[in-house]
Structures are given as structure tokens and as C-alpha cells.
Request: fold
Amino acid sequence: MARITASVFTSHVPAIGAAIDLGKTQEAYWQPLFQGYEFSKQWMKDNTPDVVFLVYNDHATAFSLDLIPTFAIGTAASYQPADEGWGPRPVPVVEGHPELASHIAQSVIQQDFDLTIVNKMDVDHGLTVPLSLMCGQPEKWPFKVIPFAVNVVQYPVPSGRRCFQLGQAIRKAVESFDGDLNVQIWGTGGMSHQLQGPRAGLINKEWDNAFLDKLIADPAAAAAIPHIEYVREAGSEGIELVMWLIARGAMADVAGGPAPKLAHRFFHVPASNTAVGHLILENA
Reply:
């Protein structure tokens, strides 16, 4: 059967992608951040999966404010990097896994989660920046990717508890696939940041690290955090962290298995007015 072997959690700040694309990773401002991902790039080479189920949010690229699905799964064979206003990022085309994606959609919908099935879409920095952070700048991404877009842009957005439960449904779906696949699930976005209004530039290091502690050791408590706490403590865009709960809910310990191994933890501020968090958890 297919199996989820690890979960990866990372911010997806667009300026990080620009720094990579423009060759600025060793500049004084950016070097400490990218140093925190050196372990991750080697870990990725040593633990390359067949498929990454990548949870992210679209930034009004594939979905405008005319049509906003709460949960959308990509079932296409490939996805082009999106033009977000300054041209597409110079990164490889993302290759999908239609068979596994369609199976997950079928299974999750039968577990009473409503998904939007997307057969064609471009993918923006929310998906490509995590790939660059973990894989560097290859000519081809070393695994297939299933994009899973979550609405955290326009309220109402899904609760942390709902996202956590969805992760559990995704794990069941993956494990019921008739094929021997090594799958990783990634949760992206966050951490604390606010991009507008009187609190623009807000970063809350203490709250961010407390969230990481909960995510590692007590994910049910992290899933119980109400929306108002994300907004109050982590800023208006801090709500992106509910996407991390999808990845965490898919880990084995949530279903009664052993606790995952913490392979790597990293936190850095600031990166373009955003706190950057990163975890790698391995299923035992």
C-alpha cells in the first residue's frame, strides 16, 4: 500500500522565491534563513518520496475572488508556475500524480469532506517556494506533487479542527491506495505576519514557537486553537497555519501509532516582515 513517511512544514514567503531566483541567498539579510534549510535539502536527497501531497493556499492566481473553494485538490498531470504579476518563477513544471490524486479525492469525499476537483490550474509561490527551499534549483522536481489548495484568504475559512480531521481522512485515503508509494505530506504558509492595517509588520516569536511546540507534542491542542487567537496573536495572515494541521493530522500517532521523530526544527525572523517556521517530522 501507499504510506505517509514524513510531514514537512514551512513558510512560503514570496520574497524567499525572489531571493532564490535573483541569486541573493548569500546576502547578509538572507543567508541566515537559507542556512536553516541546508539540513532540509540534504534530508530531502536522503529521503526522496515518490509523491508529495502539498497543502498550500492560492493567492488569487488559480482562483479569483469570484470563485473560492474551501478545499481544492489538483488531479492534473502537470501544473505550470503561475505568473503572479512579474512573470512566472524560473522553476520546473510541477508534475502531478493523477491516479493517487483521484483516489484521494474519491476516498476523502466518501469520508464526508467536500473537495473541489481541479483538472487544470497554475501554481503560485505558495507551492513553488516550499519546493525550492527543500529541493534547491533542480532541472526537474525529484518527485510528483499533488497540490491541495485551502482557502485562508477570504473569510469564512476552515477551522483548525476541521483541517486536522481532514488530515486524518487523507492518511486513510493514501493507505488505501493500491500501489507501493512513498508519500510525504507538506503543510505550508505562516507563521505570524500581517500585511495591512495598523498592525502591519506584526511578528510574535513567542506565540509562533509555542505553536511549534504544540504541533510536535500535542497536535490536538494545536487543532483546538480558535480563529480569533490566530488573528489576535499571529496577525491576519497567521491563519495560514491551519494548513499545517492538515499535514499534522495525517501522521501516524494521531491514529494511535508511535510519536513521530523530530528530524529538524528551524525558526527565523524576519523574512520580508514575516516569521519563518520549519519542521520535519518522520513517521516511526
